[in-house]
Amino acid sequence: MTDIVDPATRSRMMAGIRNRDTAPEMAVRRELYSLGIHYRLHNGKLPGRPDIVIRRLHTVIFVHGCYWHRHPGCRLAYTPKSNVEFWQRKLEGNAIRDIENQARLIEMGWRVIVIWECEVHDRTALRERLAKLLGMESEAEGITE
Ligand SMILES: [Zn+2]
After folding, report:
1. Ligand 1 centre and the CA of 143: distance in Å?
2. 59 three-class SS
3. How many angstroms is it from 118 CA to the middle of ligand 1?
4. Whole domain around residue 90: which residue ranges?
5. Is 144 within the bounds of a domain?
6. Is residue 77 included in any domain, yes or no?
7. Its pTM surpasses 0.85
8. How far is the centre of ligand 1, averaged over its atoms, from the C-alpha of 80 (Å)?
9. Whose CA, among 49, 52, 81, 93, lies 20 to 30 Å from 101?
10. Exposure of 34 by Cβ count < 10 A (0-12 exposed, 13-18 middle, 19+ buried)?
């Protein structure tokens, strides 16, 4: 499989930098805002440091990069061609850690929503999905740009 990212992006990904305020995260925040949902960001006291915390709805949202967090079946979640074993182990470790953190959050009474980076490009679909997940379907219908 050919590389689908440019060398700079690739080296950032390989360096394992955990980006804050990424474009996919901003997209999700924008739709939450337009739904009138109040949230807080990056709560370090909660397992896995959720990207978005909606306390009133006991809900946390992770906005996951498909590559780094291993989106099942996603074309962005390919395995690098060099150092295959190393990367497989590392990336599987990420995915396992995600599952563990989510299980802990659920035990603590949080509802956990995961939005993948490949799912944020269709704004309308994203907003409708968030509205549905957050139980505000009726309000969402009337929203216009
Ligand atoms: Zn994906």
Report:
1. 27
2. strand
3. 4
4. 7-137
5. no
6. yes
7. no
8. 16
9. 81
10. middle
Q: Total domain count for the chain?
A: 1
Residue 34's CATH number? 3.40.960.10
128 falls within a domain: yes
How confident is residue 140, by pLDDT bands cut at 50, 70 and 90? very low
Rounded distance, CA 95 to CA 31, Å? 26
Cα separation, 89 vs 101, in Å, equals: 18
Ligand 1 center to residue 113 CA distance, Å? 15
Give residue 73 CA to ligand 1 midpoint distance, Å: 8
Query: Poorest-confidence range of 4-13, 92-101, 124-133?
Result: 4-13
Domain contains 2: no
CA of 117 to the centre of ligand 1 (A): 6
In three-state secondary structure terms, 2 is coil
| pLDDT per position as a tens digit, 8-50 | 666 666 555 555 678 899 999 999 999 999 999 988 899 999 9
Give 80-95 pLDDT, tens digit per residue. 888 999 998 999 999 9
